[in-house]
Amino acid sequence: MNPLAAMTLALVSLPAMAADSVGTAATTPSGLQALLGFAVVLALMAAAAWLLRRFGMPRMTGNTPVRIVGGVSVGARERVLVVEAGDQWIVLGVAPGRVNALMTMPRQEPPVRADGASEVKRLLARFQQSAEPGNAK
């Protein structure tokens, strides 16, 4: 039985278990009983959240059709990203609430220059330079 089904079964059978305990309701004050019930419900919700996080949806890794090749920050909340989708690289401008495709190019292996910098890093550095306040066109 999966953990979520077990939690649901426990929640459904909780009132039946409370009705079976004869005399408990008569000896505990109703405020204390309500507080205890509230604490049990909170504990069950916390346990369900933990179980969902622990055994929930599987993570997508490795076989995704889109991957980020590189990126650079060009402002406080703005970035330029190079994304590989299939056999294309797409240069994206990302800002809060917006994503713009700046250019596309065929997929390529990033050649490493003699100074160790890749072509992607050079391209992203050029975008960062053009985004600086003194270089606005």
The separation of the N and C termini measures: 63 Å
* Net shape: elongated
Strand content: 15-25%
Task: List segments where confidence is low: pLDDT < 50 over at least 5 consecutive residues.
Answer: none
Side-by-side strand order of the widest sheet: 1-2-3-4
Major sheet attributes: 4 strands, antiparallel
Rg result: 28 Å
Helix percentage range? 40-55%
Strand-and-helix sequence, N→C? HHHEEEEH
| Count of extended strands | 4
* Count of discrete domains: 2
For this structure, the quaternary state is single chain
User: How large is the count of helical segments?
Assistant: 4
Mean pLDDT: 75
- The structural class is alpha+beta
Description:
With 137 residues, this protein is of the alpha+beta class. The chain folds into 2 domains: 3-55; 66-135, no CATH class. 45% of the residues lie in helices and 23% in strands. The chain is built from 4 helices and 4 strands, in the order αααββββα. The chain has a 4-stranded antiparallel beta sheet with strand order 1-2-3-4, with helices on one face. A hairpin with a 5-residue loop joins strand 1 (66-73) and strand 2. Helix 1 (3-20) packs antiparallel against helix 3. It is elongated, with a radius of gyration of 28 Å. The model has no long low-confidence stretch (mean pLDDT 75).
